[in-house]
Amino acid sequence: TIGFTYLEIKNYEASRNPTKTILDDWAARNSESSVGELVSILEEVERKDIVEDLQTLIDEDVRKYLETQKKKAEPPVQVPEVDSCVPRTPERSGITVDDIPGGIPEMFDAFICYCQSDFAFVLEMIRELEQTEYNLKLCVFDRNVLPGSCVWTITSELIEKRCKRMVVVISDEYLDSDACDFQTKF
Questions:
Q1: According to the per-residue pLDDT averaged within each range, which of 5-9, 19-23, 165-169 is highest?
Q2: What is the pairing mode between strands 108-113 and 163-168?
Q3: Which end of the chain has less Cβ packing within 10 Å, N or C?
Q4: What domains are defined for the chain?
């Protein structure tokens, strides 16, 4: 019901976190993916036990989401002066999903440069390079990087200090993009 073949599912078993990997791929393939859709699929395949187990986690996530939305609606705190000094918060610590604040930064075998229109190819490349005997750890911006900082600052930090190599997925769209210009010159 979620559209994966038997071989794809067997390949997911080899990943570090099969459930996360399959959910990430499902979300990338399906523009209609949502928690509600996942619950519907689980109910359709008669896995109400999983739905019951997840219900408290879903309720907690909804509560946190509503709190975040409420905070966003509040007006921002205004500071009496504006300056351009060194940032008061460590902007480049904790830039990837698996970074541990104050710990050793997450390292990668390669940084993948691509544009959104090539994302399907990038997903296939991820399957071939991470979930096979190659067992590489790739840095894919849309998957591994936390939002919140300047894209160019994060990209330069990852390419320069956290990735051993850079893999460029060349396409006409990529060659016309700002990302291509920055990443390849950097």
A1: 165-169
A2: parallel
A3: N
A4: 6-73 (no CATH), 108-184 (3.40.50.10140)
